[in-house]
Design goal:
The complex is a heterodimer. Chain A is built from 7 helices and no strands. By secondary structure, chain A is mainly alpha-helical. Chain A starts with a helix and ends with a helix. Classes of the chains: A mainly alpha, B mainly alpha.
Protein backbone atom coordinates (compact mmCIF):
# COMPACT_ATOMS: atom_id res chain seq x y z
CA UNK A 1 0.00 0.00 0.00
CA UNK A 2 2.70 2.43 0.97
CA UNK A 3 4.49 2.46 -2.41
CA UNK A 4 1.18 3.08 -4.21
CA UNK A 5 0.29 6.03 -2.03
CA UNK A 6 3.82 7.42 -2.09
CA UNK A 7 3.87 7.18 -5.86
CA UNK A 8 0.47 8.85 -6.12
CA UNK A 9 1.61 11.56 -3.72
CA UNK A 10 4.70 12.36 -5.76
CA UNK A 11 2.85 12.36 -9.09
CA UNK A 12 0.04 14.53 -7.78
CA UNK A 13 2.45 16.84 -6.01
CA UNK A 14 4.44 17.44 -9.16
CA UNK A 15 1.27 17.85 -11.23
CA UNK A 16 -0.32 20.16 -8.68
CA UNK A 17 2.74 22.33 -8.32
CA UNK A 18 3.10 22.50 -12.09
CA UNK A 19 -0.51 23.55 -12.55
CA UNK A 20 -0.25 25.90 -9.63
CA UNK A 21 2.91 27.67 -10.61
CA UNK A 22 2.97 27.52 -14.41
CA UNK A 23 -0.51 26.85 -15.80
CA UNK A 24 -2.84 28.78 -13.53
CA UNK A 25 -3.28 32.40 -14.58
CA UNK A 26 -2.00 35.27 -12.50
CA UNK A 27 -4.63 36.70 -10.21
CA UNK A 28 -5.52 40.24 -11.26
CA UNK A 29 -5.88 41.47 -7.70
CA UNK A 30 -3.20 39.60 -5.84
CA UNK A 31 -0.62 39.10 -8.56
CA UNK A 32 1.68 36.14 -8.32
CA UNK A 33 1.64 35.97 -4.55
CA UNK A 34 -1.72 34.22 -4.48
CA UNK A 35 -0.01 31.05 -5.72
CA UNK A 36 0.85 30.22 -2.14
CA UNK A 37 -2.73 29.01 -1.70
CA UNK A 38 -1.84 25.88 -3.63
CA UNK A 39 0.17 24.86 -0.58
CA UNK A 40 -1.59 26.85 2.09
CA UNK A 41 -5.18 25.73 1.64
CA UNK A 42 -4.51 21.97 1.42
CA UNK A 43 -2.22 22.20 4.44
CA UNK A 44 -4.83 24.07 6.46
CA UNK A 45 -7.53 21.58 5.55
CA UNK A 46 -5.35 18.62 6.36
CA UNK A 47 -4.29 20.11 9.68
CA UNK A 48 -7.86 20.29 10.92
CA UNK A 49 -9.02 17.07 9.35
CA UNK A 50 -6.09 15.06 10.71
CA UNK A 51 -6.80 16.24 14.24
CA UNK A 52 -10.32 14.88 14.05
CA UNK A 53 -9.08 11.60 12.57
CA UNK A 54 -6.43 11.37 15.26
CA UNK A 55 -8.95 11.96 18.04
CA UNK A 56 -11.31 9.45 16.44
CA UNK A 57 -8.72 6.67 16.38
CA UNK A 58 -7.47 7.60 19.82
CA UNK A 59 -11.03 7.42 21.11
CA UNK A 60 -11.55 4.02 19.48
CA UNK A 61 -8.34 2.85 21.08
CA UNK A 62 -9.49 4.08 24.47
CA UNK A 63 -12.98 2.62 24.21
CA UNK A 64 -12.22 -0.79 22.74
CA UNK A 65 -8.69 -1.14 24.02
CA UNK A 66 -7.37 -1.85 20.54
CA UNK A 67 -3.68 -1.28 20.26
CA UNK A 68 -3.46 -0.62 16.55
CA UNK A 69 -5.85 2.32 16.53
CA UNK A 70 -3.89 4.02 19.31
CA UNK A 71 -0.68 3.49 17.37
CA UNK A 72 -2.38 4.98 14.36
CA UNK A 73 -3.36 8.05 16.36
CA UNK A 74 0.20 8.42 17.56
CA UNK A 75 1.39 8.16 13.98
CA UNK A 76 -0.99 10.86 12.77
CA UNK A 77 0.06 13.52 15.27
CA UNK A 78 3.44 14.57 13.77
CA UNK A 79 1.97 14.80 10.25
CA UNK A 80 -0.91 16.91 11.52
CA UNK A 81 1.43 19.19 13.41
CA UNK A 82 3.59 19.54 10.31
CA UNK A 83 0.60 20.58 8.18
CA UNK A 84 -0.49 23.04 10.86
CA UNK A 85 2.96 24.55 10.86
CA UNK A 86 3.05 24.73 7.05
CA UNK A 87 -0.35 26.41 7.03
CA UNK A 88 0.81 29.02 9.52
CA UNK A 89 4.11 29.56 7.81
CA UNK A 90 2.78 29.90 4.27
CA UNK A 91 -0.01 32.06 5.66
CA UNK A 92 2.59 34.40 7.10
CA UNK A 93 4.44 34.47 3.78
CA UNK A 94 1.18 35.33 2.03
CA UNK A 95 0.17 37.88 4.62
CA UNK A 96 3.31 39.94 4.26
CA UNK A 97 2.70 41.14 0.68
CA UNK A 98 -1.12 41.07 1.00
CA UNK A 99 -1.86 42.57 4.38
CA UNK A 100 1.54 44.15 4.88
CA UNK A 101 2.20 42.14 8.01
CA UNK A 102 3.38 38.66 8.90
CA UNK A 103 0.79 38.09 11.54
CA UNK A 104 -2.67 39.36 12.33
CA UNK A 105 -4.68 38.36 15.38
CA UNK A 106 -7.41 37.18 13.11
CA UNK A 107 -9.81 34.48 14.26
CA UNK A 108 -8.59 31.87 11.83
CA UNK A 109 -4.92 32.48 12.43
CA UNK A 110 -5.36 32.33 16.15
CA UNK A 111 -7.37 29.13 16.10
CA UNK A 112 -4.82 27.51 13.80
CA UNK A 113 -2.10 28.50 16.26
CA UNK A 114 -4.06 26.96 19.11
CA UNK A 115 -4.46 23.81 17.03
CA UNK A 116 -0.67 23.66 16.80
CA UNK A 117 -0.47 23.96 20.59
CA UNK A 118 -2.92 21.08 20.97
CA UNK A 119 -0.88 18.86 18.65
CA UNK A 120 2.27 19.71 20.54
CA UNK A 121 0.56 19.02 23.86
CA UNK A 122 -0.57 15.62 22.60
CA UNK A 123 2.86 14.68 21.34
CA UNK A 124 4.77 15.88 24.38
CA UNK A 125 2.38 14.09 26.73
CA UNK A 126 2.95 10.86 24.85
CA UNK A 127 6.67 11.44 24.77
CA UNK A 128 6.80 11.99 28.52
CA UNK A 129 5.15 8.67 29.37
CA UNK A 130 7.41 5.66 29.18
CA UNK A 131 4.76 2.97 29.22
CA UNK A 132 3.28 2.97 25.68
CA UNK A 133 -0.14 1.72 26.75
CA UNK A 134 -0.49 4.46 29.32
CA UNK A 135 0.79 6.96 26.76
CA UNK A 136 -1.90 5.83 24.33
CA UNK A 137 -4.69 6.24 26.83
CA UNK A 138 -3.49 9.53 28.28
CA UNK A 139 -3.03 10.88 24.76
CA UNK A 140 -6.51 9.70 23.84
CA UNK A 141 -8.05 11.59 26.73
CA UNK A 142 -6.26 14.82 25.93
CA UNK A 143 -7.11 14.45 22.22
CA UNK A 144 -10.79 13.95 23.03
CA UNK A 145 -10.83 16.88 25.46
CA UNK A 146 -9.25 18.87 22.66
CA UNK A 147 -11.99 17.86 20.24
CA UNK A 148 -14.66 19.01 22.67
CA UNK A 149 -12.79 22.25 23.08
CA UNK A 150 -12.02 23.01 19.46
CA UNK A 151 -15.48 24.36 18.61
CA UNK A 152 -15.53 26.37 21.83
CA UNK A 153 -12.08 27.79 21.19
CA UNK A 154 -12.90 28.48 17.58
CA UNK A 155 -16.08 30.39 18.37
CA UNK A 156 -14.64 32.23 21.33
CA UNK A 157 -11.73 33.38 19.22
CA UNK A 158 -14.10 34.45 16.48
CA UNK A 159 -16.31 36.44 18.84
CA UNK A 160 -13.32 37.89 20.60
CA UNK A 161 -12.03 39.12 17.29
CA UNK A 162 -15.26 40.64 16.09
CA UNK A 163 -15.87 42.25 19.44
CA UNK A 164 -12.61 44.13 19.44
CA UNK A 165 -11.58 44.78 15.90
CA UNK A 166 -13.88 46.80 13.71
CA UNK A 167 -12.44 45.73 10.39
CA UNK A 168 -11.37 42.13 10.56
CA UNK A 169 -9.44 40.79 7.64
CA UNK A 170 -11.39 38.17 5.79
CA UNK A 171 -9.36 35.23 4.66
CA UNK A 172 -12.24 33.83 2.67
CA UNK A 173 -11.91 36.17 -0.24
CA UNK A 174 -13.53 33.51 -2.47
CA UNK A 175 -13.38 35.18 -5.86
CA UNK A 176 -14.89 33.24 -8.70
CA UNK A 177 -11.81 31.13 -9.06
CA UNK A 178 -10.55 30.25 -12.49
CA UNK A 179 -11.00 26.57 -13.26
CA UNK A 180 -7.29 25.95 -13.58
CA UNK A 181 -6.71 27.49 -10.17
CA UNK A 182 -9.36 25.28 -8.66
CA UNK A 183 -7.93 22.26 -10.45
CA UNK A 184 -4.46 23.00 -9.20
CA UNK A 185 -5.73 23.35 -5.68
CA UNK A 186 -7.73 20.15 -5.80
CA UNK A 187 -4.77 18.24 -7.17
CA UNK A 188 -2.68 19.59 -4.33
CA UNK A 189 -5.37 18.54 -1.85
CA UNK A 190 -5.25 15.01 -3.19
CA UNK A 191 -1.46 15.11 -3.13
CA UNK A 192 -1.48 15.97 0.56
CA UNK A 193 -4.02 13.24 1.19
CA UNK A 194 -1.81 10.67 -0.49
CA UNK A 195 1.25 11.99 1.27
CA UNK A 196 -0.48 11.81 4.65
CA UNK A 197 -1.71 8.28 4.09
CA UNK A 198 1.69 7.08 2.93
CA UNK A 199 3.62 8.71 5.75
CA UNK A 200 1.16 7.74 8.44
CA UNK A 201 1.05 4.11 7.32
CA UNK A 202 4.82 4.04 7.25
CA UNK A 203 5.06 5.57 10.70
CA UNK A 204 2.48 3.15 12.07
CA UNK A 205 4.56 0.30 10.71
CA UNK A 206 7.63 1.65 12.48
CA UNK A 207 5.71 2.06 15.73
CA UNK A 208 4.42 -1.50 15.52
CA UNK A 209 7.92 -2.83 14.94
CA UNK A 210 9.26 -0.75 17.80
CA UNK A 211 6.65 -1.87 20.29
CA UNK A 212 6.72 -5.49 19.24
CA UNK A 213 10.50 -5.63 19.15
CA UNK A 214 10.53 -8.32 21.83
CA UNK A 215 8.35 -10.72 19.84
CA UNK A 216 9.51 -13.62 17.72
CA UNK A 217 8.10 -12.41 14.44
CA UNK A 218 10.00 -9.14 14.59
CA UNK A 219 13.20 -11.00 15.33
CA UNK A 220 12.45 -13.25 12.39
CA UNK A 221 11.87 -10.24 10.17
CA UNK A 222 15.07 -8.64 11.36
CA UNK A 223 17.08 -11.76 10.55
CA UNK A 224 15.64 -11.83 7.05
CA UNK A 225 16.40 -8.15 6.50
CA UNK A 226 20.00 -8.49 7.53
CA UNK A 227 20.68 -11.58 5.44
CA UNK B 1 -18.20 15.81 50.89
CA UNK B 2 -15.56 14.77 53.38
CA UNK B 3 -12.87 15.12 50.76
CA UNK B 4 -13.26 18.89 50.50
CA UNK B 5 -12.96 19.15 54.26
CA UNK B 6 -9.92 16.93 54.29
CA UNK B 7 -8.14 18.84 51.52
CA UNK B 8 -8.94 22.15 53.16
CA UNK B 9 -7.59 20.88 56.46
CA UNK B 10 -4.39 19.78 54.74
CA UNK B 11 -4.11 23.20 53.12
CA UNK B 12 -4.58 25.00 56.41
CA UNK B 13 -1.87 22.90 57.98
CA UNK B 14 0.42 24.02 55.21
CA UNK B 15 -0.42 27.66 54.85
CA UNK B 16 2.74 28.54 52.98
CA UNK B 17 1.49 26.71 49.87
CA UNK B 18 -1.64 28.84 49.72
CA UNK B 19 0.23 32.03 50.37
CA UNK B 20 2.85 31.25 47.73
CA UNK B 21 0.18 31.03 45.04
CA UNK B 22 -1.42 34.25 46.19
CA UNK B 23 1.85 36.14 46.31
CA UNK B 24 2.84 34.78 42.93
CA UNK B 25 -0.38 36.29 41.59
CA UNK B 26 0.31 39.64 43.27
CA UNK B 27 3.91 39.78 42.07
CA UNK B 28 3.08 38.93 38.47
CA UNK B 29 0.39 41.60 38.36
CA UNK B 30 2.74 44.14 39.93
CA UNK B 31 5.51 43.37 37.47
CA UNK B 32 3.57 44.74 34.52
CA UNK B 33 3.54 48.41 35.54
CA UNK B 34 7.26 48.08 36.22
CA UNK B 35 7.94 46.70 32.76
CA UNK B 36 5.70 48.88 30.60
CA UNK B 37 5.86 52.09 32.62
CA UNK B 38 3.40 53.71 35.02
CA UNK B 39 1.23 55.31 32.34
CA UNK B 40 -2.23 55.21 33.95
CA UNK B 41 -4.25 55.26 30.74
CA UNK B 42 -2.35 52.33 29.32
CA UNK B 43 -2.50 50.40 32.59
CA UNK B 44 -6.24 50.82 32.76
CA UNK B 45 -6.61 49.27 29.33
CA UNK B 46 -4.25 46.42 30.16
CA UNK B 47 -5.60 45.68 33.61
CA UNK B 48 -8.26 43.02 32.84
CA UNK B 49 -5.93 41.06 30.63
CA UNK B 50 -3.03 41.24 33.04
CA UNK B 51 -5.08 40.20 36.05
CA UNK B 52 -6.64 37.35 34.13
CA UNK B 53 -3.36 36.02 32.75
CA UNK B 54 -1.82 36.20 36.20
CA UNK B 55 -4.80 34.33 37.66
CA UNK B 56 -4.42 31.69 34.95
CA UNK B 57 -0.76 31.18 35.73
CA UNK B 58 -1.26 31.19 39.47
CA UNK B 59 -4.01 28.60 39.39
CA UNK B 60 -1.99 26.50 36.95
CA UNK B 61 1.12 26.52 39.12
CA UNK B 62 -0.69 24.95 42.01
CA UNK B 63 -2.25 22.20 39.90
CA UNK B 64 0.61 19.84 40.60
CA UNK B 65 -0.37 19.68 44.25
CA UNK B 66 -3.92 18.62 43.51
CA UNK B 67 -3.12 14.92 43.24
CA UNK B 68 0.62 14.48 43.64
CA UNK B 69 0.84 14.42 47.45
CA UNK B 70 -1.94 11.88 47.68
CA UNK B 71 -0.35 9.91 44.90
CA UNK B 72 3.02 9.81 46.63
CA UNK B 73 1.74 8.59 49.99
CA UNK B 74 -0.68 6.10 48.46
CA UNK B 75 -3.88 7.82 49.55
CA UNK B 76 -4.99 8.20 45.97
CA UNK B 77 -4.93 4.45 45.37
CA UNK B 78 -7.11 3.93 48.41
CA UNK B 79 -9.50 6.55 47.07
CA UNK B 80 -9.68 4.67 43.79
CA UNK B 81 -10.53 1.51 45.69
CA UNK B 82 -13.28 3.16 47.70
CA UNK B 83 -16.88 2.52 46.64
CA UNK B 84 -17.44 6.24 46.12
CA UNK B 85 -17.66 7.40 42.52
CA UNK B 86 -14.28 8.59 41.38
CA UNK B 87 -15.79 11.50 39.46
CA UNK B 88 -17.31 12.82 42.67
CA UNK B 89 -13.97 12.50 44.43
CA UNK B 90 -12.30 14.45 41.66
CA UNK B 91 -15.03 17.06 41.81
CA UNK B 92 -14.43 17.40 45.53
CA UNK B 93 -10.72 17.78 45.03
CA UNK B 94 -11.27 20.39 42.33
CA UNK B 95 -13.59 22.35 44.60
CA UNK B 96 -11.03 22.20 47.39
CA UNK B 97 -8.35 23.35 44.97
CA UNK B 98 -10.52 26.26 43.97
CA UNK B 99 -11.27 27.23 47.58
CA UNK B 100 -7.57 27.17 48.37
CA UNK B 101 -6.16 28.89 45.27
CA UNK B 102 -9.01 30.41 43.26
CA UNK B 103 -10.89 32.04 46.10
CA UNK B 104 -7.95 34.09 47.44
CA UNK B 105 -7.28 35.32 43.90
CA UNK B 106 -10.87 36.47 43.54
CA UNK B 107 -10.70 38.31 46.84
CA UNK B 108 -7.35 39.86 45.98
CA UNK B 109 -8.30 40.96 42.46
CA UNK B 110 -10.18 44.19 43.40
CA UNK B 111 -7.17 45.41 45.38
CA UNK B 112 -4.91 44.79 42.41
CA UNK B 113 -7.46 46.45 40.16
CA UNK B 114 -7.13 49.59 42.24
CA UNK B 115 -3.41 49.52 41.54
CA UNK B 116 -4.37 49.77 37.89
CA UNK B 117 -6.83 52.57 38.53
CA UNK B 118 -9.90 50.65 37.39
CA UNK B 119 -13.27 52.34 37.99
CA UNK B 120 -15.44 50.82 40.70
CA UNK B 121 -17.98 49.05 38.51
CA UNK B 122 -15.18 47.56 36.41
CA UNK B 123 -13.68 46.21 39.63
CA UNK B 124 -16.99 44.58 40.37
CA UNK B 125 -17.20 42.99 36.94
CA UNK B 126 -13.60 41.80 37.23
CA UNK B 127 -14.36 40.13 40.53
CA UNK B 128 -17.53 38.51 39.27
CA UNK B 129 -15.83 37.26 36.11
CA UNK B 130 -13.01 35.77 38.19
CA UNK B 131 -15.53 34.26 40.58
CA UNK B 132 -17.21 32.47 37.68
CA UNK B 133 -14.04 31.73 35.74
CA UNK B 134 -11.53 30.44 38.29
CA UNK B 135 -13.58 27.29 39.11
CA UNK B 136 -13.43 26.43 35.41
CA UNK B 137 -9.65 26.72 35.60
CA UNK B 138 -9.53 24.33 38.56
CA UNK B 139 -11.84 21.85 36.83
CA UNK B 140 -10.01 21.80 33.51
CA UNK B 141 -6.73 21.81 35.38
CA UNK B 142 -7.77 18.65 37.20
CA UNK B 143 -7.69 16.80 33.87
CA UNK B 144 -4.16 18.00 33.16
CA UNK B 145 -3.00 17.27 36.69
CA UNK B 146 -4.45 13.76 36.52
CA UNK B 147 -2.86 13.03 33.16
CA UNK B 148 0.62 14.15 34.16
CA UNK B 149 0.57 12.43 37.53
CA UNK B 150 3.97 11.02 38.38
CA UNK B 151 5.60 11.99 35.11
CA UNK B 152 9.01 13.58 34.89
CA UNK B 153 8.77 17.22 33.97
CA UNK B 154 5.09 17.09 34.83
CA UNK B 155 4.91 20.75 35.81
CA UNK B 156 5.93 22.11 32.43
CA UNK B 157 3.85 19.52 30.63
CA UNK B 158 0.73 20.54 32.55
CA UNK B 159 1.08 24.08 31.27
CA UNK B 160 1.42 22.86 27.71
CA UNK B 161 -1.71 20.73 27.99
CA UNK B 162 -3.89 23.03 30.00
CA UNK B 163 -3.13 26.55 28.81
CA UNK B 164 -4.63 26.15 25.31
CA UNK B 165 -7.80 24.85 26.94
CA UNK B 166 -7.94 27.90 29.20
CA UNK B 167 -8.16 30.29 26.27
CA UNK B 168 -11.97 30.65 26.06
CA UNK B 169 -12.23 31.49 29.75
CA UNK B 170 -9.46 34.04 29.40
CA UNK B 171 -11.07 35.67 26.37
CA UNK B 172 -14.47 36.10 27.96
CA UNK B 173 -13.20 36.87 31.44
CA UNK B 174 -11.03 39.73 30.29
CA UNK B 175 -13.62 40.58 27.64
CA UNK B 176 -16.33 41.18 30.22
CA UNK B 177 -14.27 43.82 32.00
CA UNK B 178 -13.24 45.49 28.77
CA UNK B 179 -16.85 45.55 27.58
CA UNK B 180 -17.86 47.17 30.84
CA UNK B 181 -15.15 49.81 30.56
CA UNK B 182 -16.08 50.70 27.00
CA UNK B 183 -19.73 50.97 28.00
CA UNK B 184 -20.97 47.89 26.20
CA UNK B 185 -23.25 45.35 27.79
CA UNK B 186 -21.18 42.62 29.40
CA UNK B 187 -23.94 40.17 30.34
CA UNK B 188 -23.22 37.95 27.36
CA UNK B 189 -19.62 37.46 28.46
CA UNK B 190 -20.58 36.52 31.97
CA UNK B 191 -23.32 34.18 30.73
CA UNK B 192 -20.80 32.41 28.52
CA UNK B 193 -18.37 31.95 31.39
CA UNK B 194 -21.27 30.60 33.41
CA UNK B 195 -21.97 28.17 30.57
CA UNK B 196 -18.32 27.06 30.55
CA UNK B 197 -18.58 26.52 34.28
CA UNK B 198 -21.65 24.32 33.95
CA UNK B 199 -20.22 22.29 31.07
CA UNK B 200 -16.92 21.76 32.83
CA UNK B 201 -18.70 20.86 36.06
CA UNK B 202 -20.32 17.98 34.21
CA UNK B 203 -17.54 16.85 31.90
CA UNK B 204 -14.25 17.68 33.59
CA UNK B 205 -14.57 15.47 36.70
CA UNK B 206 -15.47 12.56 34.47
CA UNK B 207 -12.52 13.14 32.13
CA UNK B 208 -10.16 13.67 35.06
CA UNK B 209 -11.41 10.50 36.74
CA UNK B 210 -10.70 8.42 33.66
CA UNK B 211 -7.29 10.09 33.40
CA UNK B 212 -6.57 9.11 36.99
CA UNK B 213 -7.48 5.52 36.20
CA UNK B 214 -5.08 5.60 33.26
CA UNK B 215 -2.32 7.14 35.35
CA UNK B 216 -2.65 4.69 38.21
CA UNK B 217 -3.01 1.51 36.21
Amino acid sequence: MIPIFSFAAIVLLVAGLYVGFFVAPTDFQQGEAYRIIFIHVPAAWMSMFLYVVMAFWAGIGLAFNTRLSSMFATAIAPTGAMFTFIALWTGALWGKPMWGTWWVWDARLTSELILLFLYIGFMSLQAAIDDPRRADKAGAIIALVGVVNIPIIYFSVQWWNTLHQGASVSVTQAPAMATTMLMGMLIMVFASWMYSIAVILKRTRVIILERESHTAWVAELQRKETV
Amino acid sequence: MWIIKRDLLLAIRRQSDVLTTLFFFIIVVSLFPLSVGPEMNMLRVMAPGVVWVAALLASMLSLGRMFSNDYLDGTLEQMLLSPQSLSLLVLGKAIAHWLVTGMPLVLMAPVLGIQYDLPVDALLVLTVSLLLGTPVLSLIGAIGAALTLGLRGGGVLVSLLVLPLYIPVLIFGAGAVEANMSGVNFDAHLSLIGAFLLVSLVLAPWAAASSLKVSLE
